[in-house]
């Protein structure tokens, strides 16, 4: 029987059909029957679960008698619905006198040692223990013995504080660190009623995902140090949003109170973050409500930035832009919404007549239609985040995945932990993926192509049909000088391990994920070509992923914040300057005005010196910013703009999923979304771009950018929409790649 | 009725720990005979013997043996449960000390029958001497070619036996917790059928695993040599063969007694020399996990798996076992039942692994109430609470340790409620003023303050 075969079960007499093996508690949910629980969590493995016993139900299964008649046989003991897989004909009773008595007994057990300090407990008001107590809790405590005592507020890490007295030992947190984050930080120590949660040897909890245990803890035992005692749950409002800390696009809730962000919780999106966030997202979003936020425009007067009114600042901007003519450029947009970026590029292209636009701050600034797109037909990710679950093999190359793409990391780990996927990784230094990657090899920095050539060499021999691929002749000739041994020597990875990697790729559908070590490689395009060769050769041309890293870098590309392509990757006739060229032009006083849109080249561009010369010179620099960043400090006009919490719009995450954000609160009347600033400027230039809301702009994008045709405000819904290329690339080919050892590579392009 | 020594036949034989002596007395002939049989024939022999597991639950042994998938290339394991931790039970200890070769031989036969290559014997950590004897037996068996590669020249039979010593947890005798512990995890039980596959399908390391008690394996060579029918000719309808009972308490000649199933309970007490220091008050017949039987009704009980006691509470009727693991504790009329229950409760509260709510919280609560009663602080309502707690634990806990903690107290409340009431009313033992509860409060929780980070 396949796992997805349906079975018929009855919950309190209500018949439902569910896939065989579904936990009874889920089948009950489907029947509309509520079974109380504490430890159950659908994303955590059952093996260490089923321990709270709150979900006990009575179960009967059909038995065939010797005469062939079928009768219902009741299991002698009550069963935990969370761990019981349903089978055909099973009948479950959740409301019998016995079941109710059992729930009361369990709840009483949980409460005897519980401190019941709800009035000062952060969880009070949204506490499963409180909630279940309302229905099953005893009226009086019969426990007159002394309760367990532990020190309150025991700090586990920078973010998490632990109230051990409130713990109900459900093992959700320990299972999270074993099943999901994989850092195995929390465990039970001692036994019986003395049992408690701690880290190994009372060391600090070190995890990129520690915040999640706060959310899944069913009581107020694991708490956020940031949020502790800041608000009561009924006293905060909540708005749907998207995390801006990386390109994965975790769905979050911004919980705020009187115009200040209090905390961030994850929002379920099975396609993206499931229900997790990383700590950067959960604890790093507090930037929106710090006192360092800019609330008034600044103008440089007498060499110093001084407060000005909005009109003063904008008039100055417009006057200088008029003087500059076409000699203008803009850098940034990777943290703005699609709507911001669309208006930014429209303002520059249509009003100022300049293609000097770039959202990138890295070293690798290839033409939009080159690289991955030219070879495989897509710009960044071939796969959706959820696709990684089905992969037989995932090859992570040159990426410290957990830091660069935390949510991708969790999916990749899930593929390994729950779906039988095999993970292989090759990195210049060991990363956290070594917990489950088999093997994680470390190659000599810069020797990616050598390593890939070794793998390619093995696969080319194994896959005779590759000879039919266009370009095969030249390609194989270019590999003539390569042997596995040479690859091993050049890359520093043993021949045996190169073979194991090749074996894993050969064994089935393989996805490739490349990261910063590749995109920041001085010879990045060669490495990417080699990865494409490997993918084409192994039949995985649709599975190469080189995700962007900044929040809306994907959307910025899509919206045409590139010198050579307009929204939707339409090539422009006269490509403008890219980031480096703009900075160089500014440094040489060849650019009259430069607008930094949420970009901080001084802090983030690889050549900080060039950035300082560019911004500190004659060029008139405008910075739209949240903070007075090192770059903004060099600007001539600084315009405060709205953060994610203060505006509506959409972001496109690394897998091209367009997702909505909603305005939670207002910071100050002078703080506007970026698109508004450009619309205002164009109005003052008497070429108005009349938009009233981000929705307006999105509707225009739906019409003018065919790739975004489906992403209308109505359709985006809670899961967002992943836009698709109109067709898959059909003319795949192999191309020779030259391996240039790092020392010989000098040009950065 | 006398003893019938089959497993303990050689226990007084000098030099029985040496393989030569064991072989001279017929040792390892069963293995030779088994290797001459088809694997299924071996299992059939165990089936016809009617052998039931001696670890406490009395599960038919052959069903497990037969359940291990045949013709599989997966690795699979044979485990021997030598974690004997049940209070009052010390039969496995003596079997290991005196007849270790018998166990080793039984395990090898099980390995042959189930086509396993690897086995472990999980020995209770405190049994240092027993572990040494098992070590010695295993070493000798390797030297003689009974263990290792190509056993007795059989090309298709390689078999290794490893010792794993526990770290002092009663719970690790529970079969799934034993597997967790063996795999290096925390000694907590794992999901059982129907929540997860049976161990014979997915046990240790998620592979098919056979687990039996020391005594169970010890019977196997005798069944192979003499035939299942011979073994089944002894005992009652549902309980075949002999069983070792460990007698302790107020008894003249404490020790292990091997008897045929079906012997009246009181006959065994007589066999061990009778009660000392007073008249019989009560017997715990099968290890501390089974409820005690008062002297007045002891004559109604026979020692077999069919025997049971019923306890009624609210909407439930519970049938509680009698034989259990065979640890029989005899108490004379100078025994204070409440203190006895306090001591029992302390054991379970201390041994609860902490995984599930009812056992973790309930066992400690039982202990605290009982302690309060013998400290003179009992209240009439306590008896209801005690029964209530037991009811909340029994059948609701994750593994049977919780049940085992509840049953004795439920039994004592059924038979000796008056003693509890006396304690509560008079704040002293019914046995008189000078009775001092011997149990200090060992489980009063005191947590050291942990340093902040
Ligand atoms: C709390 C607990 C402790 C147990 N301890 C032991 C033990 O020490 N030795 C043992 O053989 N079985 C013990 N058992 C029983 C085992 O779980 C299992 O039933 C037995 O090892 C199976 O072997 P058998 O079929 O030969 O009886 C224990 C069970 C429980 C619930
Ligand atoms: S965890 Fe829940 S029940 Fe416990 S003190 Fe906090 S709010 Fe109250
Ligand atoms: S700390 Fe919270 S999540 Fe962890 S075991 Fe305790 S109650 Fe469960
Ligand atoms: S009943 Fe529960 S707490 Fe007790 S030993 Fe078993 S699993 Fe552990
Ligand atoms: S929810 Fe089922 S045992 Fe906890």
Word description of this protein:
The complex is a heterodimer of chains A (749) and B (453). Chain A has 749 residues and is an alpha/beta fold. Chain A has 24 helices and 31 strands. Chain A has four domains: 3-101, Ubiquitin-like (UB roll) (Roll); 111-224, Alpha-Beta Plaits, CATH 3.30.70; 298-365 and 553-722, Rossmann fold; 381-545, Dimethylsulfoxide Reductase, domain 2 (3-Layer(aba) Sandwich). Chain A has a seven-stranded mixed β-sheet, with helices on both faces. In chain A, strands 1, 2, 3, 4, 5 and 6 form a six-stranded mixed β-sheet that branches. Chain A is globular and about 90 Å long. The model of chain A has no long low-confidence stretch (mean pLDDT 95). Chain B is α/β, with parallel strands linked by helices and 453 residues long. In chain B, strand 7 (280-284) and strand 8 form a beta hairpin. The longest helix of chain B is centred in the N-terminal third of the chain and has 24 residues, at 91-114. Chain B is globular, with a radius of gyration of 23 Å. Chains A and B meet through strand 5, helix 2 and strand 7 of A and helix 12, helix 13 and helix 14 of B.
Highlighted features:
heterodimer; A: 749 residues; alpha/beta; Ubiquitin-like (UB roll); Alpha-Beta Plaits; Rossmann fold; 4 domains; seven-stranded mixed sheet; six-stranded mixed sheet; globular; B: alpha/beta; five-stranded mixed sheet; 16 helices; disordered C terminus; binds flavin mononucleotide; binds iron/sulfur cluster; binds FE2/S2 (inorganic) cluster
Care to give the gist of this entry?
The complex is a heterodimer of chains A (749) and B (453). Chain A is an alpha/beta fold and 749 residues long.
Physical arrangement of strands within the biggest beta sheet of chain A: 16-15-28-27-26-17-18
Oligomer: heterodimer
Low-confidence stretches of chain B: 446-453
Largest interface: A-B, 55 and 48 residues
SSE layout:
The complex is a heterodimer of chains A (749) and B (453).
Chain A: E1 6-11, E2 14-19, H1 24-30, E3 56-64, E4 70-74, E5 79-80, E6 91-93, H2 97-112, H3 128-136, E7 154-155, E8 160-162, H4 172-180, E9 186-189, E10 196-199, H5 211-216, E11 222-224, E12 237-242, E13 251-257, E14 260-266, H6 279-284, E15 298-301, E16 304-307, H7 310-324, E17 328-332, H8 338-351, E18 357-358, H9 371-376, E19 393-397, H10 401-404, H11 406-419, E20 422-427, E21 440-442, H12 448-462, H13 472-478, H14 484-491, H15 495-506, E22 510-514, H16 516-519, H17 524-537, E23 544-545, H18 553-558, E24 565-566, E25 570-571, H19 579-587, E26 593-597, H20 601-604, H21 608-616, E27 620-625, E28 637-640, E29 649-652, E30 657-661, H22 674-684, H23 694-704, H24 713-716, E31 721-722
Parallel strand pairs in A: 1-6, 17-18, 17-26, 19-20, 19-22, 20-21, 22-23, 26-27, 27-28
Antiparallel strand pairs in A: 1-2, 3-4, 3-5, 3-6, 7-8, 8-11, 9-10, 12-13, 13-14, 15-16, 15-28, 24-25, 29-30, 30-31
Chain B: H1 19-24, H2 29-35, H3 39-49, H4 61-67, E1 77-82, H5 91-114, E2 118-123, H6 128-143, E3 160-165, H7 175-182, E4 209-213, H8 214-226, H9 228-232, E5 242-249, E6 255-260, H10 265-271, E7 280-284, E8 293-294, H11 295-298, E9 308-313, E10 316-321, E11 327-332, H12 337-351, H13 357-377, H14 382-393, H15 400-415, H16 417-426
Parallel strand pairs in B: 1-2, 1-4, 2-3, 5-11
Antiparallel strand pairs in B: 5-6, 7-8, 7-11, 9-10
Helix pairs in contact in B: 2-5, 2-8, 3-4, 3-5, 5-6, 5-8, 12-13, 12-15, 13-14, 13-15, 13-16, 14-15
Flavin mononucleotide binds at residues 53-57, 59, 61, 81, 83-86, 170-171, 173-175, 211-213, 216, 399-401, 404 of chain B.
């Amino acid at each position: 029987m396949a796992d997805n075969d349906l079975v018929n079960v009855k919950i309190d007499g209500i018949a439902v059909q569910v896939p065989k093996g579904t936990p009874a508690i889920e089948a009950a949910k489907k029947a509309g029957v509520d079974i109380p629980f504490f430890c159950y969590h659908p994303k955590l493995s059952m093996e260490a679960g089923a321990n709270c016993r709150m979900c006990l139900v009575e179960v009967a299964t059909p038995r065939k008698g010797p005469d062939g008649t079928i009768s219902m046989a009741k299991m002698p003991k009550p069963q935990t619905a969370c761990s019981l897989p349903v089978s055909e004909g099973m009948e479950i009773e959740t409301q019998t006198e016995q079941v109710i008595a059992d729930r009361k007994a369990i709840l009483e057990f949980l409460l005897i040692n519980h401190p019941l300090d709800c009035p000062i407990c952060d969880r009070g008001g949204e506490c499963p223990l409180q909630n279940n107590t309302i229905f099953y809790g005893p009226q009086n405590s019969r426990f007159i013995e002394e309760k367990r005592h532990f020190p309150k507020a025991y700090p586990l890490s920078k973010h998490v504080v632990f109230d051990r007295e409130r713990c109900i030992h459900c093992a959700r947190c320990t299972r999270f660190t074993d099943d999901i984050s994989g850092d195995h930080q929390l465990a039970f120590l001692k036994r019986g009623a003395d049992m408690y949660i701690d880290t190994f040897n009372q060391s600090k909890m070190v995890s990129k995902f520690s915040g999640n245990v706060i959310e899944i803890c069913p009581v107020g035992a694991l708490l956020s140090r940031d949020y502790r005692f800041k608000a009561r749950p009924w006293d905060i409002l909540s708005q749907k949003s998207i995390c801006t800390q990386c390109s994965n696009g975790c769905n979050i809730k911004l919980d705020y109170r009187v115009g200040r962000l209090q905390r961030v919780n994850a929002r379920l999106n099975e396609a993206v973050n499931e229900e997790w966030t990383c700590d950067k997202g959960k604890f790093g979003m507090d930037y929106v409500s710090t006192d360092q936020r800019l609330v008034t425009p600044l103008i440089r007067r007498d060499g110093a930035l001084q407060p000005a009114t909005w009109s003063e600042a904008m008039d100055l901007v417009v006057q200088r832009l008029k003087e500059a003519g076409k000699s203008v450029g803009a850098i940034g947009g990777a943290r703005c919404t699609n709507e911001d970026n669309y208006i930014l590029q429209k303002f520059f292209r249509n009003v100022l007549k300049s293609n000097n636009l770039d959202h990138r701050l890295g070293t690798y600034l290839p033409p939009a239609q080159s690289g991955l797109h030219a070879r495989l037909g897509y710009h960044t990710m071939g796969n959706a985040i959820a696709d990684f679950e089905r992969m037989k093999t995932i090859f992570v190359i040159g990426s410290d995945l957990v830091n660069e793409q935390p949510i991708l990391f969790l999916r990749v780990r899930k593929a390994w932990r729950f779906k039988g996927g095999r993970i292989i990784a090759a990195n210049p230094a060991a990363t956290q993926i070594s917990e489950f990657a088999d093997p994680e090899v470390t190659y000599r920095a810069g020797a990616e192509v050598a390593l890939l050539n070794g793998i390619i060499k093995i696969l080319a021999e194994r896959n005779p049909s590759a000879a039919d691929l266009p370009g095969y002749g030249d390609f194989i000739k270019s590999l003539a000088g390569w042997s596995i041994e040479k690859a091993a020597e050049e890359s520093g990875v043993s021949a045996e391990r190169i073979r194991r990697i090749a074996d894993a790729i050969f064994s089935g559908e393989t996805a490739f994920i490349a990261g910063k070590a590749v995109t920041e490689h001085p010879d990045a395009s060669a490495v990417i070509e080699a990865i494409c060769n490997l993918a084409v050769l192994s039949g995985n041309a649709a599975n190469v992923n080189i995700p962007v890293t900044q929040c809306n870098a994907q959307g910025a590309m899509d919206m045409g914040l590139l010198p050579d392509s307009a929204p939707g990757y339409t090539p422009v006739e006269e490509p403008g300057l890219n980031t480096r060229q703009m900075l160089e032009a500014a440094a040489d006083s060849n650019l009259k005005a430069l607008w930094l849109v949420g970009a901080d080249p001084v802090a983030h561009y690889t050549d900080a010196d060039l950035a300082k010369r560019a911004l500190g010179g004659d060029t008139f620099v405008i910075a739209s910013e949240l903070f007075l960043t090192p770059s903004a400090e060099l600007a001539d006009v600084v315009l405060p703009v709205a953060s994610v919490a203060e505006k509506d719009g959409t972001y496109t995450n690394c897998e091209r999923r367009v997702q909505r954000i909603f305005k939670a609160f207002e910071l100050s009347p002078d703080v506007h979304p970026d698109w508004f600033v450009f619309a205002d400027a164009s109005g003052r230039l008497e070429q108005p771009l009349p938009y009233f809301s981000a929705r307006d702009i999105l509707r225009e994008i739906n019409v003018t950018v065919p790739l975004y045709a489906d992403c209308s405000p109505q359709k985006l819904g809670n899961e967002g929409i992943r836009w698709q290329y109109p067709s898959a690339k059909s003319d795949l080919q192999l191309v020779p790649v030259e391996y240039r050892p790092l020392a010989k590579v000098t040009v950065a392009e | 009725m006398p003893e019938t020594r089959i497993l303990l036949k050689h226990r007084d034989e000098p030099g029985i720990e040496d393989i030569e002596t064991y072989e001279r007395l017929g040792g390892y002939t069963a293995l030779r005979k088994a290797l001459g049989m088809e694997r299924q024939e071996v299992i059939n022999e165990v089936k016809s013997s009617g052998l039931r597991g001696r670890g406490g639950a009395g599960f038919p042994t052959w069903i497990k043996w037969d359940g291990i998938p045949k013709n599989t290339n997966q690795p699979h394991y044979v485990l021997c449960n030598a974690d004997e931790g049940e209070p009052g039970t010390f039969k496995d200890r003596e079997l290991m000390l005196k007849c270790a070769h018998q166990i080793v031989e039984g395990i090898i036969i099980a390995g042959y029958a189930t086509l396993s290559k690897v086995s472990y014997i999980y020995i209770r950590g405190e049994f240092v001497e027993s572990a040494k004897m098992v070590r010695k037996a295993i070493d000798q068996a390797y030297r003689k070619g009974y263990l290792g590669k190509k056993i007795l020249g059989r090309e298709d039979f390689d078999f290794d036996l490893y010792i794993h010593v526990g770290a002092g947890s009663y719970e690790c005798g529970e079969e799934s917790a034993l597997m967790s512990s063996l795999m290096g995890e925390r000694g907590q039980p794992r999901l059982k059928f129907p929540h997860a596959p049976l161990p014979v399908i997915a046990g240790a390391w998620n592979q098919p695993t056979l687990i039996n008690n020391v005594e169970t394996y010890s019977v196997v060579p005798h069944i192979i040599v003499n035939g299942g029918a011979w073994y089944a000719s002894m005992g009652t309808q549902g309980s075949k063969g002999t069983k070792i009972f460990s007698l302790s308490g107020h008894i003249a000649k404490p020790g292990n007694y091997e008897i045929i199933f079906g012997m009246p309970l009181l006959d065994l007490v007589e066999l061990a020399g009778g009660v000392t220091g007073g008249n019989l008050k009560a017997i715990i017949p099968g290890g501390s996990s089974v409820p005690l039987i008062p002297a007045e009704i002891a004559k109604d009980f026979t020692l077999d798996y069919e025997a049971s006691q019923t306890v009624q509470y609210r909407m439930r009727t519970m049938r509680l076992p009698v034989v259990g693991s065979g640890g029989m504790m005899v108490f004379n009329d100078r025994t204070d039942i409440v203190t006895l229950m306090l001591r029992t409760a302390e054991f379970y509260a201390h041994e609860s692994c902490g995984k599930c709510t009812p056992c973790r919280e309930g066992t400690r609560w039982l202990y605290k109430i009982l302690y309060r009663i013998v400290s003179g602080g009992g209240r009439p309502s306590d008896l209801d609470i005690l029964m209530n707690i037991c009811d909340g634990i029994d059948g609701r806990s994750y593994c049977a340790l919780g049940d085992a903690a509840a049953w004795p107290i439920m039994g004592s409340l059924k038979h000796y409620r008056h003693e509890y009431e006396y304690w509560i009313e008079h704040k002293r033992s019914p046995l008189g003023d000078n009775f001092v509860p011997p149990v200090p409060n060992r489980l009063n929780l005191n947590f050291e303050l942990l340093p902040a980070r």
